Each structure stands twice: as C-alpha cells, then as structure tokens.
Amino acid sequence: MTKIVYVGLDVHAETIAVATADDGRGGEIRFYGTIRNTADSILRLTKRLSSGNTIPVFCYEAGLCWTNPVKAAFPLNSERTYPTGTVTGIPSAV
C-alpha cells in the first residue's frame, strides 16, 4: 500500500527548514531538520523521503526567498503557499 507523507518547506536565503506530516487525521507531525537551499540538497531530501512505498507531497511558501534551487527542484508537482494563506499549483511559466 502506498503511503503519503506531507512535507512543508520554510524557505530562507541560505537554508530550508523541513517538517513532515503523516497522512490521515491522526498523522504524526514532526520537524525533519534544516537543509541548505540548493537544488542538490532538495533532490537528496526528495530521494530520502521517497523510500519504499512512500510518496512525498510538498508545500512551500512563495515569499522573497523563493529561489532558483527551489524552482529547479519543484517545477510542477508541488503546492505553493502565499503569505495570504492561499494555496495554488505552481504555474508552468515560472
């Protein structure tokens, strides 16, 4: 059976704070850690979270630190949260 883990990214200029939440109403929420804000670090994180039958679903805030490494790692398949609280898919033109 496929398991979903939700991943929240708090993006800063040099680092990204990562939190995860298990699927379901009673899913555990935990702080995963802090990674460097590079495409390589984001892709390594994705591979770690994708082990076995787990599918990571990402969401991050599109603030001023929405940098090229984040854009490169998440071109189409993630959600972007704006400071106003709305959530939308990332447009392909970004």
Describe the overall structure:
This protein has two helices and six strands. It has 94 residues and is of the alpha/beta class. The protein has one domain (3-89): YqgF/RNase H-like domain (Nucleotidyltransferase, domain 5, 2-Layer Sandwich), CATH 3.30.420.140. The longest helix is centred in the middle third of the chain and has 11 residues, at 39-49. The relative contact order is 0.22. Residues 82-94 have low confidence and may be disordered.
Descriptive terms for the model:
single chain; 94 residues; alpha/beta; Nucleotidyltransferase, domain 5; 6 strands; 18% helix; globular; disordered C terminus
Number of strands: 6
Q: Classify the fold: give the CATH topology.
A: Nucleotidyltransferase, domain 5
> Strand share of the residues?
35-45%
CATH classification class = Alpha Beta
Care to give the gist of this entry?
With 94 residues, this protein is an alpha/beta fold. Helices cover 18% and strands 41% of the residues. It has a single domain, classed as YqgF/RNase H-like domain (Nucleotidyltransferase, domain 5, 2-Layer Sandwich), CATH 3.30.420.140.
